[in-house]
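Researcher: Here's a chain I'd like modeled. Treat it as a single chain, no partners, no ligands.
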Amino acid sequence: MDIAITDACIFIDVFLLGIEEEFFHLPCRLHTTVDVLGELNPEQNQVLRPFIEQGLLIKHNLSAQQQEQLIKIPFPKSLSPADRSVFLIAAELNAMVLSSDKVLRNWAKKQKLEYHGILWVLETLVNSEVLSKEAGLQKLELLFQVNPTMAGSREVVKKVEELKKEWSNQL
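Model: Modeled as a single isolated chain. Structure tokens:
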């Protein structure tokens, strides 16, 4: 089973789309870092706590040695400390990065790490029948309302339209 290291952006999208339970049915082991959890508000952390306690979300706390490694990596200045921690753990575990953050996704791509965003999450949940196609279509409609910055990306808009067409044709 693959490992996915999740950033705060994905968690926030998951919360806003109301797919917390479904998210933990992805066909991968989900990990995050203490730094990422620090970017979430107390209510969001409260939602994640049971998943951590059940072992469905593995939480990494960077060691002093890992913190020193972070200093040596020439990250883009706009990459947050939490996103840097996601990259480091993903690189160490040869894991994919789950992020909606363009800077982190571009850095992962540059470093030849597999990366995916919220559209991959939705597509995977629909394809594995965790979410119905109808529910997937509703979440796609909701996505641009809860995360308007995504509507500014031609690539995202194109992929959303492709998924809508595909899922609608299968109803």
